[in-house]
Structure to design on (453 residues):
């Protein structure tokens, strides 16, 4: 299950030589936040090494809700379709 | 991308409260590792103190002060340092790292027999954790973030009482509330991936409030709230689903569900005021350390920026932890000191084995990788 399936990625902005991602976590108290930002940045750079700028922002508004999960994720976790 | 799409996305971005963290606010992983070592020094001393007190070993030498400080070193020196370090990493503010520094230094001061300074350092560490938790709750209020702040408040209350001379036995309800609510809140948040009724949400809030109130009253009442929390976690935790997956997810679920069973048993023993050693260690070893075993592969990369890859070998210390705790609790319930002590020694070996297994995984799998 990816962070996209879990609805944690809010927005991806692609320009010619830069990528900006807005993502969230279910909780601001989670210590994984900075780690996930670094991992996401590294993953983008691995695929697109020539980018001038990669920015992954951790955002808290709007708050994450279960409705943001993909249909596949919701089914897996037992949500009614 | 056309201009319209770009504009819409820019407008959307403006609605977002963006948190950007300057690198200066991040303590480098090497610095975090040093703080972790402070906590581990308290863990080693705390376990040694417990074993010496149980009579497993003699001639303590420099560790003599640890005999009477076993609980303080384990709960405040080790767990307090680790939890407040984790919270500081989440907040990413330099001042928040004062909490693990104060807790670790407090534990070391206690071992150096600077008792009063040590106790007040622990209280200061709890105060900083409360401030950090409150700031996180303000970032986005939720039942989970509020519960984490309440848990830190309970720890502060317990540590101030300790510094004022209240015996550990009389403040244990505050420390247990700190640990149980911290873990409960983290599981509550992760369980948001599952369908959950408003009633379940309200029930968790009622249990958390009752646990705080019980800390004012008695350990027996705390025991009842622990049973209620265990029931809630068993009913609603994501682990019920992930137990049927594989690899790390299944391992974590096994740690969690076994921990909840111990939490329930410890709560019952507190509620009926029986077998104090069994009750305390069912909660603090069976529940809390099982959580640590389960969450380490997730938290270690977050704190140290080094992977702790899953290996089935992690089940070995887990099985030893729960098996030896069963022996310990059975010995305590039967009044058989020798069996209880053997179980205690098994607990210590299980923790040492887990640390060794985890460290080997981190070192082996990170060879050639630099700190990030």
């Amino acid at each position: 299950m990816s962070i996209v399936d879990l609805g944690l990625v809010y927005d991806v902005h692609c320009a010619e030589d830069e990528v900006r991602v807005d993502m969230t976590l279910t909780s601001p108290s989670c210590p994984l936040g900075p780690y996930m930002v670094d991992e996401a940045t590294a993953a983008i750079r691995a695929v697109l090494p020539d980018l001038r700028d990669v920015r992954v922002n951790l955002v808290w508004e709007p708050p994450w809700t279960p409705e943001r999960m993909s249909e596949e994720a919701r089914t897996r976790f037992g949500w009614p379709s | 991308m056309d201009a319209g799409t770009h504009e819409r996305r820019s407008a959307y971005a403006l609605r977002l409260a963006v948190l950007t963290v300057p690198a200066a606010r991040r303590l480098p992983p090497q610095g975090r590792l040093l703080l972790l070592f402070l906590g581990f020094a308290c863990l080693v001393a705390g376990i040694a103190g417990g074993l010496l007190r149980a009579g497993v070993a003699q001639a303590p030498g420099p560790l003599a002060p640890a005999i009477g400080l076993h609980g303080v070193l384990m709960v405040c020196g080790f767990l307090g340092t680790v939890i407040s370090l984790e919270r500081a990493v989440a907040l990413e503010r330099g001042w928040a790292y004062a909490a693990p520094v104060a807790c670790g230094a407090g534990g070391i001061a206690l071992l150096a027999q600077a008792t009063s300074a040590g106790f007040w350092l622990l209280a200061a560490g709890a105060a900083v954790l409360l401030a950090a938790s409150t700031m996180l709750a303000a970032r986005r209020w939720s039942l989970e973030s509020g519960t984490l702040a309440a848990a830190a408040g309970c720890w502060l209350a317990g540590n101030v009482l300790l510094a004022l001379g209240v015996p550990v036995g009389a403040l244990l309800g505050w420390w247990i509330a700190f640990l149980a609510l911290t873990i409960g809140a983290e599981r509550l948040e992760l369980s948001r991936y599952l369908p959950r009724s408003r009633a379940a949400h309200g029930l968790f809030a009622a249990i958390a409030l009752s646990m705080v109130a019980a800390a004012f009253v008695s350990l027996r009442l705390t025991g009842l709230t622990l049973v209620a929390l265990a029931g809630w976690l068993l009913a609603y935790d994501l682990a019920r689903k992930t137990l049927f997956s594989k690899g790390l997810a299944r391992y974590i679920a096994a740690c969690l569900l076994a921990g909840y069973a111990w939490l329930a048993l410890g709560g019952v023993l507190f509620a009926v005021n029986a077998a104090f050693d069994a009750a305390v260690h069912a909660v603090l070893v069976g529940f809390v350390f099982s959580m640590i075993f389960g969450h380490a592969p997730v938290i270690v990369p977050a704190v140290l920026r080094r992977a702790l890859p899953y290996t089935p070998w992690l089940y070995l210390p887990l099985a030893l932890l729960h098996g030896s705790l069963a022996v310990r609790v059975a010995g305590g319930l039967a009044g058989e000191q020798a069996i209880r002590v053997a179980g205690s020694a098994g607990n210590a070996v299980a923790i040492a084995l887990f640390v060794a297994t985890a460290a080997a995984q981190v070192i082996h799998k990170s060879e050639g990788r630099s700190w990030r």
